[in-house]
């Protein structure tokens, strides 16, 4: 099964309890958290099987703390 890596950004006002709940929500939808951030940015680096992708992306509408879910990749500045 193939998987994809995503960045999940959480609202900067989220408390640690809300971050923990968001992590649990991500894992309940099939995501595996690789890393988390709580300083300059709040969020997670997540790997998800492509079969679970739609369920995972549905969190953005149901979890009030997730502001962005986007594929991880290189960024180039011209």
From TrEMBL:
This is Inhibitor I9 domain-containing protein. It comes from Dacryopinax primogenitus (strain DJM 731) (Brown rot fungus).
